[in-house]
Design brief:
This protein has 220 residues and is of the alpha/beta class. It contains 10 helices and 7 strands. The strands form 2 sheets. Strands 2-1-3-6-7 form a 5-stranded parallel β-sheet, with helices on both faces. The chain is elongated, with a radius of gyration of 24 Å.
Length: 220
């Protein structure tokens, strides 16, 4: 089975397993279908490689020499490393699975792992990671656009996305309706919003809409 994602330019897949034979087998499998791979014997090697944030997926053995993979999974969250984790073990149980899944693992493989199962799990993890990265990039872009707004344009954006009409906004800000329309037009252009719904989505991502709606709820 050839991974669907391996047919396109692929990111980095990391493996942490203290069994050199397992590392070599997974490394060979993933490279054979076009993935880039870095395999490590320990979590410290992974963290020290300088590429941890690049990884689109991490295959993590639960039972490592002197370490617990589930504990390391929690450490990743504490370090704000949100790489999708696929847990592997030859001694899995329900409690272990539940703990791993609650911590955000995208899959749980039992050794010896079937090649097709590994590739399917990785494809799922990479899709999740690419969606996360795309959402983060979009959020950063929206924040950069928002930072270009004047204080008055931000006020207008907050009130518009709270559902107020131009006339109501003019009353709140003690300005003319024409002035509101000018600020609103400038704000929509700077935010590159194609519609009010588009602007509301941006405001929700910024956290601007909820705050304003609550602030003016008493006037509704």
């Amino acid at each position: 089975m050839v991974s669907d994602l391996a047919k396109t330019p692929s990111g980095l897949i990391c493996v942490i397993d203290d069994d050199s034979a397992v590392r070599a087998a997974i490394d060979s499998l993933l490279r054979s279908v076009g993935f880039s791979v870095c395999a490590f014997e320990s979590p410290d090697q992974y963290l020290g490689c300088g590429r941890a944030e690049e990884a689109e997926c991490l295959l993590l053995d639960i039972r490592l020499n002197g370490l617990n993979g589930l504990d390391f999974q929690q450490e990743l969250l504490g370090r704000q490393l949100h790489v999708p984790v696929i847990l592997m073990t030859g001694h899995g149980d329900i409690q272990m699975t539940v703990r791993g899944m609650k911590a955000g693992a995208v899959n749980f493989l039992t050794k010896p792992c079937n090649d097709d199962d590994i590739l399917a799990a990785i494809d799922e993890a990479v899709v999740i990671d690419r969606a996360r990265r795309a959402a983060r990039c979009e959020a950063e872009d929206v924040r950069r656009l928002y930072d270009t707004l004047t204080p008055r344009e931000r006020e207008v954006m907050s009130l518009v996305t709270a559902g107020l009409l131009n006339k109501q906004i003019a009353g709140r800000l003690s300005v003319s309706e024409i002035t509101v329309k000018i600020h609103r037009g400038n704000m929509m252009r700077k935010m590159r919003a194609q519609s009010l719904a588009d602007l509301v989505r941006m405001a929700e991502g910024l956290g601007a809409r909820e705050v304003t709606a609550a602030r003016f709820a008493a006037y509704a």
